[in-house]
Amino acid sequence: MARTTKSLIIFCTTVKINSMRYEKNTVIGILAHVDAGKTTLSEAMLYLSGKIKTLGRVDHRDSYLDNHFLERERGITIFSKQARLELPGSAVTLLDTPGHADFSAEAERTLRVLDAAVLVISGTDGVQAHTETLWRLLARYDLPCFLFVSKMDLPGSDREKIMAELQRRFGEACLDFALPAPALQERLALCSEEAMEKYLSEGKLEGEDISALIHSRRLFPCFFGSGLRLEGVEALLAALDRFVRPAEAGERFGARVYQIGRDAQGNRLSYMKITGGCLRVRDTLAYKDAGGAPVKEKVSGLRLYSGAKYENTDCVYPGQVCAVPGLGGTWAGQGLGAENNFVGPALESALQYRLRLPEGADPAALLPKLMLLQEEEPQLHIHWNAGAGEISLRLMGRIQEEIFKSLVKERFDLALELDSGSVMYKETIADTVEGVGHFEPLRHYAEVHLIMEPLPPGSGLVIDSICPEDALDRNWQRLILSHLREREHPGVLTGAPITDMKISLAAGKAHLKHTEGGDFRQAVFRALRQGLMQAKSVLLEPWYAFTIEVPPEQTGRAINDIRAMHGEFSSPEDAGGLTRLRGGAPFSGLRGYGEEVRAYTRGRGRFSMCADGYRPCHDQKSAVEALGYDAESDTENPSASVFCAHGAGFSVKWDKVPDYMHLESCLKKTDAAPAPVHRCLSIDQRELDAIMEREFGPIRRRSYAAPVKNLAPERETDARQRQQYIIVDGYNLIFAWDELRALAAERLDLARGRLMDMLSSYCGYTKAELVLVFDGFRTPGNPGSRSDYHNIHLVFTADGETGDAYIERLADRIGKNNAVRVVTSDNLIRLSALRSGVLRCSSAEFKAELEQTLKTIDDILRRSSKGAHMTRLKDGKQ
């Protein structure tokens, strides 16, 4: 048990939190990747602030915040918990969030109510893939952040090395607050022009200046220590107390609901942060439920939780977090009073599962019970397929799958199973289209025109109206927009949800007598589907960022696996006896790879991954064919419109709707069709040389090279007239060659050097101009380089530029010229080469050609050496 001397306790006067309004109430969250020491740090903070009298431990299953039986069984945080602690200058609500990537959606919801965050990083593991995801989320929500590097008491922790990594990955604004005061002040002054002016004029920066830098995210204070040994925690607490300031509170009542839960008796609890005014018992809350229906309810009680226990209070003030029992229509992400609802989450589930119920279980009876779990975890997206009689849901991974089954067993005494799960795709469009929907059965009428435009990745759906109110009444427009927002909309390739597009209401028409609200719902959904049927749809697959640590001898295996997954990675890093690879790949390839890493490294390797958005599917055709979705047969999402003639409605197929629609098209049309663009199918040698000279500098012509023999006369003439250009994907060739792959497992630079020497010999004999490209993507700060190595051109791409992209760009610039070959086994590059009109050659084919050329060179050298020896003997006889 840790020491309990008063020197470790931060003294503060204990005041019952419900008896007065504090001048400074702040909400601070703790985030980390799994096993970084986050819960241990929370225990230390509670202990040093006097909140708890003994330190609990995760491995002892007695931590203050991880109090659910599933958390104590597994030793991980699953549910966000809160604790109240009192510091000399502030009352703090501490929110401990899950660290495992499977529960990152729960952590993201908590960010909406924080005033600041503490990001915990393991001193032995460093920055992991999930750490970077959390960092991006903190930037997305513009949250001030303090960094605490834990486990510094363990072997393998290196303060200077970790600090350098933090500055490299998160920026120079990460600053070690243990620096001597003069040095710290100088570094603080560099954070902004205002800070520099204050420092130069007054000689130092005050607490308010430092707080302003932190809250503008121009400074990220870094602390080092050990939660278990209570080292460095006092300094962190003092900084949080001094520098964190609460958000400005409004006079009008406002609150943000971030979590729905249930107490031990099954009572529904709405967890919320008060942002303005105050909330009192017996106040009436007016809001809309998740379906948009108005609700009015009285507040029957207010609870202030700390761990598993709570205190009742009569009133809560801005900056405080409370649980309100009994509210029936609230939902996670809801804004109450002056607050708006939250925007959609950045992190989403990548897998969809179908439930397998035990014999005799009624899925229709189970569905309402499961919807109670969805209230607590909205990202489950539980769906009832009436046609198949099945229930499906979405989960982030294997751990969440196991927890879900355990919760169903605990709550409803039902042992269910899930299928193996399928990847959750999304769809977007690549061009702008106008979708038209018309709904006119007898005595009904509505027509809607939508403009649908593609947006950058990660934008989600943007719903807007550009329709004048004199063309369509405002109330009808609001109704149409609400229908667009009320549910997910399936695409037409696989039925996956659409994303990354802007949908604008451009025009609409109602009938004075016959239009009802449901008519516009039908019309707008048909307009959306009709537009999707016209558009060039793109299938998106989930990508995950990963960190792999393997023994050096297994590096080649890991790199080969990543390439086989169509992934990308940065240059290998040293990780204290292991080799660390960071990168990203499609989730379909990474799924289950952690077990594979542990198997081929015999337990020495480590693997972590977390969601990193969506990208175009690497094999769209195969994925679409495998899923077998038929958009035109989807009766729940029709693309046809309904028109009326002779007193009866009739259906019009989507591609014929423009011939029947009542309003004119809203997309601008040009008066004349644009002239066709014809690309030149080849470029001459001077243009080719000019491109190479711009890329690599003046071309140095060889004064001599061995003649190319055994060519047919016409080919020999062509070879003299046309310079041969070869673009080689360096790493692809290395890992297609057993000798080089084995060498790369020991020293990647030696494998590169060996390949460069062989290619130099090859070019010396064949007279080919060769560009060797190595991927420098995701090597932080790497500027890239272009140089010559003997007689070959050498390219290392810059940070943020893949070798694939460089090869595609160079091949396209050289143009459709049959004197150019691209050497790679990467199918995406070969497809790009095909589009550019250049020749393709697999790594295996070029390896055989290169080996044959080197053998020919050796034979020539042996014959030459033997001839010279015979000449010397002959001269000696004479």
Describe this structure in a few short sentences.
This protein is of the alpha/beta class.
What does this structure look like?
The chain has 878 residues and is α/β, with parallel strands linked by helices. Residues 1-21, 669-682 and 702-720 have low confidence and may be disordered. The strands form ten sheets. A seven-stranded mixed β-sheet has the order 2-3-1-4-5-7-6, sandwiched between helices. It is 33% helix and 25% strand. Helix 22 (738-746) runs antiparallel to helix 23.
User: What does the average pLDDT come to?
Assistant: 85
Beta content comes to 25-35%
Number of strands: 40
Query: What is the subunit organization of this protein?
Result: single chain
Strand-pairing-aware structural class: alpha/beta
| Helical content (DSSP H or I, runs of 4+) | 25-40%
C-alpha-based Rg, rounded: 33 Å
What characteristic shape results from the CA principal axes? Answer: globular
Put simply, the count of helices is 26
Q: Report the biggest beta sheet as strand number plus sense, adding barrel if it closes.
A: 7 strands, mixed
- What's the arrangement of strands in the largest beta sheet? 2-3-1-4-5-7-6
Kindly report how far apart the N and C termini lie.
97 Å
Uncertain segments: 1-21, 669-682, 702-720
